[in-house]
Amino acid sequence: MLKIATFNLFNYIEPPFACYDFDRIYDEHQWQKKQKWIRDYLAEHQPDVIGFQEVFSPDSLKALVAECDYPYFEVVDGADVIEDYIYRSPVVAIASRYPITAITAVTPDTALAVDMGLTAEYQFSRKPLRASIELPHLGTTDCYVVHFKSKRPMLESEDTELATTKAVLDAFTKQMCGSWGSSMQRGSEAALLFQQMIQRRQETKNPMMLMGDFNDVLDNDRDGVLSHLTMNTLRFNSDPQAQDIVKQFSLQDSWHLYQHATNALAISNTPAPRPATHYFYNKGSVLDYILLSCEFNAEYQRSLYEVSDYHTYDRHLINPIYERDSESTDHAVVQINLQLRH
């Protein structure tokens, strides 16, 4: 069995460094408590491959996971220094119990970005990484870790007083346009990343996994900002061979693969509600995902694994205990189990 997890660490930064401003520094007790929370999760759930987000201190994280029996750890970027000890722009990382044989930062195809109406200088807001890992029965598997652009508006009003109608409407329009700008960035990141994944698979035939904090809801609506990540048909084409090719290069949400497998065995076909992975006040959303290529889809004739379990670790969000969870994370940890097909 293989266990794969995606884990947003929420400001993983070792003191005396701070993230974003001087007030956001862990004291030694808080830092040790955060470290213990991560160790406890790893000890209890034992994922084999973990994609991390919000990493400011990769050297510290590498040491932590090494203690937990993860000899392979990689990053492809570093956080930016604002001034002195203050950092911004955390990065993604990956840890594995199986050998990582290659690592690279994924970069967008410049010509395609221009064709999409973007600039030739377009870049991902955070560099996605691709780790090639030697997994049992699969061989070299390309594992991608992402943290797509957040929903924070790209534009903000400089007037904080909002004392006039003009100031209010200026703030409103900047919020509206800035939110859409963030959505365009996030959607463009997803499309350009997926294009690079397809190109890589065409060259190598390697199985693919995509995991991370998508900062948006992934649904099957054709108009969704991230919906193209799970496109699996060539529209306006009735050629079965062409459609089969597309399916071999498409990605599927591991939750849906798990639901299909469990519903096939269940008496009732009523799907269970999907647990949220993030809460804003009392509203829950699923922002953290693991997507898989056809090698993990039991309906695909040549698949090797199937999703036998899907677990959302969220007790620190829905029933937090201060002594245990005060330095945890604001996201749930998503983990899937992959069972070898017989």
Give a structural overview.
- Helix content is 30%, strand content 28%.
- By secondary structure, it is of the alpha+beta class.
- The protein has one domain (2-340): Endonuclease/exonuclease/phosphatase (Deoxyribonuclease I, Chain A), CATH 3.60.10.10.
- The strands form 4 sheets. The chain has a 6-stranded mixed beta sheet. Strands 8-9-10-11-15-12 form a 6-stranded mixed beta sheet. Strands 2-6-5 form a 3-stranded mixed beta sheet, with no helix packed on it.
The string of secondary-structure elements, in order, is EEHEHEEEEEHEEHEHEHEEEEHHE
**From the alpha-carbon coordinates, what is the Rg to the nearest angstrom?**
21 Å
CATH first level = Alpha Beta
- CATH second-level architecture: 4-Layer Sandwich
Task: Please give the share of residues in helix.
Answer: 25-40%
Number of domains: 1
Q: Helix segment count?
A: 8
Structural class: alpha+beta
Low-pLDDT stretches are none
In spatial order, strands of the major sheet run 4-7-3-1-17-16
According to CATH, the fold-level topology is Deoxyribonuclease I, Chain A
Give the total of beta strands.
17
**Distance, first to last CA:** 12 Å
Strand content: 25-35%
- The coarse overall form would be globular
Task: Let me know the average pLDDT.
Answer: 92
Q: Superfamily at the CATH H level?
A: Endonuclease/exonuclease/phosphatase
